[in-house]
């Protein structure tokens, strides 16, 4: 099932990316090439195979949910592209 | 240039007064400047390194010093060091300053290593040639018209060109081993979970590993034993005890070595195939048993790898939105516009391509067909290795199908570029360790690297075997 330009636009929207018409065309083409290549996984019968999400299994880690000191406000704001004394500043969210 | 054969030897020479650590660091800094055109470094810590050198020189002479005292180490620019830039070779993090230090780097510092600077790499560690860096290509020291490999291209080039004693890299699908092979150095990717990922900028969290680029197996062993171990800041770091690798490199065992028939087919350069044949002969003549094995799902590794890693990447890279840190586009009037234009202007093409693919395979209606399917095939690939390691101790393969290719040669074809990782991605899918060691050179004088793989948490066998080959063959 090839990806259409419209699909690619939708994926870009989901990924919060935007492309020029030309870029989108080239990405669509490349995505289709890659997807065509990965189609080969369908040669395999995986009906009764458990998915593997993590290569080292049985390493579940639990800990107490305790409050601990973390970075302070000034540190947290240090890399902000825009800020005031206390907060990150972003464009207006509610119109 | 070097008057010592390993980090351990360097410490002895500083102790005896034969070598001045301050002079050594000065020489490295001078070499970094002389080799600026290699573009191996994103930042250099000159003053601090020199200050540290004097302090550590005194420490060594007093007899009270860490295991890596005076070792000059470069760190890939995806690992954080407090109050230093962490750019990931991306425009989106160009001005980012780290708030804390990665556990692996802290452990080096705690053992008196000197961090000389941060190395260039593919943007967010995505690439096989270092051509995806926002700060320009890194050149291969063996031939400046060729790529150093990637994504830890700067780390490999820095070690190969003698700009440091060793370097840390990261390996998500071969990013330590493939550049090590292309540049002619040792590249070790430990088991998943062996080294804490705390402070490593996430690309694909169930694949990412911090590894070492070194001039010999001894240094890899020494650095690995320092950086390994459980860390409370990374719940996926593993409890298993860390052997003293550096003191256990000699061995009596006659390892049984497997040759997977799938790794010697189409696409492999004749010269590399010959190098493997020649090593196989050498090893059998020294009494190692070589057996043919099969890894039946080898042909599915690249497809599985790209579905799973791009999915993880699309989720991990969602955090770069221009709100709290990183690049923000000046062109945005609404919040959503700010996200879109900051990300679109801040990320390079390959990163965007992978976010797009990852978003697609995770999107409604396709999750089962791609992502879940790939997770199932990941299990089949891991099962292949489990079965193989019932029969053999080590698996021998080429590290890459070719030696270093020319800059620009593959940059227009993402799929062809992905295929240069064909022998390395399987270790990350299965969570097993692998080492690339320099074995010989091709007819163009380019380094040929070969790879050993072993079972999870058996880095020792890899180090023993590559140290043995270094002693018996490379001399």
Produce a short descriptive summary.
The complex is a heterodimer of chains A (95) and B (475). By secondary structure, chain A is mainly alpha-helical. Chain A is built from three helices and no strands.
Keywords for this entry:
heterodimer, A: 95 residues, mainly alpha, Histone, subunit A, 3 helices, 35% helix, flat, B: 475 residues, alpha/beta, Amidase signature (AS) enzymes, 15 helices, 13% strand, globular
What does this entry look like structurally?
The complex is a heterodimer of chains A (95) and B (475). Chain A is mostly helical. Chain A has a domain at 5-41: Orthogonal Bundle (Histone, subunit A), CATH 1.10.20. Chain A is 35% helix and 0% strand. Chain A has helices at 5-14, 21-38, 73-77. The radius of gyration of chain A is 23 Å and the shape is flat. With 475 residues, chain B is an alpha/beta fold. Chain B has a single domain (1-475), classed as Amidase signature (AS) enzymes (Alpha-Beta Complex), CATH 3.90.1300.10. Helix content of chain B is 38%, strand content 13%. An 11-stranded mixed sheet of chain B has the order 1-3-2-4-6-5-10-11-9-7-8, sandwiched between helices. In chain B, helix 2 (21-34) packs antiparallel against helix 3 (46-62) and helix 7 runs antiparallel to helix 15 (459-472). The longest helix of chain B is centred in the C-terminal third of the chain and has 25 residues, at 367-391. Chain B is globular. The mean pLDDT of chain B is 96. The chains are: A mainly alpha (95), B alpha/beta (475). Chains A and B meet through helix 1 and helix 2 of A and helix 9, helix 10, helix 11, helix 12 and helix 13 of B.
């Amino acid at each position: 099932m090839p990806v259409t330009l419209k699909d690619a636009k939708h994926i870009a929207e989901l990924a919060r990316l935007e492309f020029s018409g030309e870029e989108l065309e080239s990405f669509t083409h490349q995505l289709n090439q890659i997807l065509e290549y990965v189609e080969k996984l369908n040669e395999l019968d995986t009906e009764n195979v458990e998915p593997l999400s993590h290569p080292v299994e049985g390493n579940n880690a639990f800990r107490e949910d305790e409050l601990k000191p973390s970075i302070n406000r000034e540190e947290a704001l240090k890399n902000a592209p825009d800020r005031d004394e206390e907060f990150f500043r972003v464009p207006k969210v509610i119109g | 240039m070097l008057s010592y054969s390993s980090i351990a030897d360097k410490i002895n020479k500083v102790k005896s007064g034969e070598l001045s650590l301050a002079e050594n660091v000065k020489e490295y800094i001078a070499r970094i400047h002389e080799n600026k055109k290699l573009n191996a470094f994103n930042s250099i810590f000159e003053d601090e390194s020199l200050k540290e050198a004097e302090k550590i020189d005194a420490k060594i002479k007093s007899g009270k010093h860490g295991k890596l005292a005076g070792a000059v180490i470069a760190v890939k620019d995806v690992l954080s060091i407090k109050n230093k830039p962490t750019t990931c070779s991306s425009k989106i993090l160009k001005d980012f300053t780290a708030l804390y230090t990665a556990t692996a780097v802290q452990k080096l510092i705690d053992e008196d290593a000197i961090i000389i600077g941060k190395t260039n790499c593919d943007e967010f560690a995505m690439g096989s040639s270092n051509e995806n860096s926002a700060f320009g290509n890194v050149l291969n020291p063996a031939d400046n018209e060729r790529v150093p490999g990637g994504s830890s291209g700067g780390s490999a080039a820095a070690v190969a060109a003698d700009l440091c004693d060793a370097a840390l890299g990261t390996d998500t699908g071969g990013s330590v081993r493939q550049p090590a092979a292309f540049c002619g150095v040792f590249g070790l990717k430990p088991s998943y979970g062996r080294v804490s990922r705390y402070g490593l900028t996430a690309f694909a969290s169930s694949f990412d590993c911090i590894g070492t680029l070194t001039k010999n197996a001894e240094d890899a062993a020494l650095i690995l034993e320092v950086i390994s171990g459980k860390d409370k800041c990374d719940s996926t770091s593993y409890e298993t005890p860390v052997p003293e690798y550096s003191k256990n490199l000699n061995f009596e065992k006659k390892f049984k070595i497997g040759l997977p028939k799938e790794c010697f087919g189409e696409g492999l350069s004749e010269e590399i195939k010959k190098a493997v044949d020649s090593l196989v002969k050498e090893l059998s003549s020294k009494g190692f048993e070589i057996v043919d094995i099969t890894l039946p799902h080898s042909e599915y590794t690249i497809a599985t790898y790209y579905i799973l890693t791009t999915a993880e990447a699309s989720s991990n890279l969602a955090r770069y939105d221009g709100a709290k840190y990183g690049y923000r586009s000046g062109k945005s009037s609404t919040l959503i516009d700010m996200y879109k234009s900051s990300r679109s202007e801040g990320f390079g093409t390959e990163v965007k391509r992978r976010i797009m693919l990852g978003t697609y395979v995770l999107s409604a209606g396709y999750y089962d067909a791609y992502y879940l399917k790939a997770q199932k095939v990941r299990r089949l690939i891991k099962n292949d290795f489990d079965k193989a390691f019932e029969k053999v101790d080590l698996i021998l393969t080429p590290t890459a199908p070719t030696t270093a290719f020319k800059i620009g040669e593959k940059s227009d074809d993402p799929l062809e570029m992905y295929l240069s990782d064909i022998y390395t991605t399987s270790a990350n899918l299965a969570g097993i360790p692998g080492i690339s060691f320099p074995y010989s050179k091709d007819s163009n004088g380019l380094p040929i690297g070969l790879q050993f793989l072993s079972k999870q948490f058996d880095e020792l066998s890899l180090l023993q075997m590559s140290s043995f080959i270094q002693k018996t063959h490379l001399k």
